[in-house]
Design brief:
The chain is an alpha+beta fold. It is built from 3 helices and 5 strands; from the N terminus they run αβββαβαβ. The protein is globular, with a radius of gyration of 14 Å. Bound molecules: adenosine monophosphate (AMP).
Length: 115
């Protein structure tokens, strides 16, 4: 599968401000933050988009990503007021980097509908 810049971040070949890491999941601050807290939570294995996810095969991995989001939200002090988790999928979803990632956004009131 084609690599993206996120593979280089996983291998620590390019710098990132790491917010969380375990065996399967890495989280780092977005380089172009859209909110006071904007962290990307990614699996260490390459899964390009949500379309390649299967509930049966990836349930544990998705659970770890949610656990990471909750841990980071607490650390960043946004767990009580709330936050938004976003996974953009392909062109119409606004996905630019084809390595699965969950945006954790918080620290301000989010609007709806999204752009
Ligand atoms: P998406 O548009 O959902 O694919 O989101 C990709 C995100 O990756 C964007 O919010 C970018 O700002 C972010 N991004 C791209 N390159 C880097 C990088 N080197 N370090 C941190 N965030 C990045």
């Amino acid at each position: 599968m084609a690599e993206t810049i996120f593979s280089k971040i996983i291998r620590k070949e390019i710098p990132a401000k790491i917010a969380f890491e375990n065996e399967h999941v890495l989280a780092f601050h977005d380089i172009n933050p859209q909110a006071p807290v904007h962290v990307l939570i990614i699996p260490k294995i390459v899964i390009p988009t949500v379309s390649e996810l299967s509930g049966k095969e990836h349930a544990a991995l998705l659970g770890e990503m949610i656990d990471a989001a909750n841990t980071i939200a607490k650390e960043q002090g946004i767990d009580e007021k709330g936050f938004r988790l976003v996974m953009n999928c392909k062109a119409d979803g606004g996905q630019d980097v084809y390595h699965l990632h969950m945006h954790l956004l918080g620290g301000r009131k989010m609007t709806w509908p999204p752009g």
